Amino acid sequence: MRNTSIIILCSLFLIGCAAQQIENKETVDTASTSEQVYIFDDVTVDTPVKEAVEDEVETQPAIEPIEFIEQKVELFIVQLGAFTSNERAAQFIKENKSKLNYEMNIHYSEDVNLYVVQLTPFRTRKEAEDVRNALWLKKEFKDSFIVPGK
Question: How many helices (H) and strands (E) in the chain?
Fold first, then answer.
């Protein structure tokens, strides 16, 4: 009877250890696969893998190549005056050309139906403000202001 009890206890011990190992293995498997699981259920056994991949590639929309990327550059223009005629704008430039170290240009503004005299555009607002502030010190340019460039 004593031998039978020992055998039963040993077999229970071995079964318990085996169950513990199975439980530990399932915990490890669950932890390692909990991050990401990929299931490929649309590929059947009788469909070759190469054909399945080709079919999936064909169903994806084609991506159009981009020829260029437009980069929006913001410019700032110092406007010196606005005139009703091109001749008057040209006369203003002629009279004041020697007073500035900047190139002056005449543009017709359809928004206001006037010929505007402007300096060459600046890349930063600070640059345009510094020039405008310096121009305000001269009587001829006291009405100068900044307009956004196009």
Answer: 4, 4
115: tokens are: 């010929």
Question: Per the structure block, which two tokens stand in for 25?
Answer: 């293995």
Angstrom distances, CA of residue 91 to CA of 83, 96, 114: 10, 9, 15
* Residue 81: strand pairing partners: 117
- Is residue 114 within 8 A of residue 83, CB to CB? The reply is yes
Between CA 22 and CA 16 the distance in angstroms is 10
DSSP string, 75-131: -EEEEEEEESSHHHHHHHHHHHGGG-SS-EEEEEETTTTEEEEEEPPBSSHHHHHHH
Joined together, the tokens standing for residue 137 give 């010190």
pLDDT per residue rounded down to tens, the chain (150 residues): 666 656 665 565 556 655 555 555 555 455 444 555 545 455 455 555 555 555 555 555 666 666 666 666 689 999 999 999 999 999 999 999 999 899 999 999 998 999 999 999 999 999 999 999 999 999 989 999 999 887
